[in-house]
Specification:
Shape: globular
Number of domains: 2
Number of strands: 11
Strand order of the largest sheet: 6-9-8-7-10-11
CATH class of the largest domain: Alpha Beta
Largest sheet: 6 strands, mixed
CATH superfamily of the largest domain: ATPase, nucleotide binding domain
Helix content: 25-40%
Structural class: alpha/beta
Order of helices and strands: EEEHEHEEHEEEHHEHEH
Strand content: 15-25%
Length: 248
Amino acid sequence: MLLAVDIGNTSTKFGLFDGDKPASKFSVPTIRNASLDEFKRALNGRLPENIGSSILCSVVPENTAPLSSFLAETTGVAPVVVDNMFDFGLKVSYEPRNSLGTDRLVNAYAAVETYGAPAIICSLGTATTIDVVSADREFVGGIIGPGMDAIAEALHLKAPRLPLVKIDESARLLGNTTESSIRSGIYFGYVAMVEGLITRIRSEAGVSRVIGTGGNAERLGKEFAGMMTVDSDLLLTGLRLLATVASK
């Protein structure tokens, strides 16, 4: 059994694979600077005993070492830690390479391995990243913007009299309260931002295939129907594929 771990800004996701088949997955909130003991408490009893190997990537560097120690202690084998210098089978045109989020590279690799190149990869989570891989598997770059929840939080912080509201797909276009007006502005504004960026990238890069992942891709799947294929397990799949390559 392979364990793949994605340490993200908001949540840490765990995916178990039996060969190339997903067996189960779960997530826990990401606590920055979590200690080894905190990982033990959060994951107590949640991992099976038959884990033969593990692999992880992280955008929270301070959590990488303690979680790696926990996995080594739990499974008896140190995990493979994927960083930006891993061999993704991609030409990476991004400077400096070590400033590029490892999750973006894993998602790009998973997208072209699973769906083919060229491709536009949209990760719609805490941040919004939209990246392009060309037909000859070159990671040519992308766009970074705020996530939908980050927009809501920023609006509240900059205009304290405007309440912090929960954004969901029940938003109506024309709100008749302050809360519903905010909800509409953020929800439909975010959808329009992503649609507009994808349209511009398609026109400039000549790429039609779009793969969406991340929590907001799942939440907004109906808004992007016909525009993107949503794959909520894209990064975990990428880690599984990289683990297979690393073991050879």
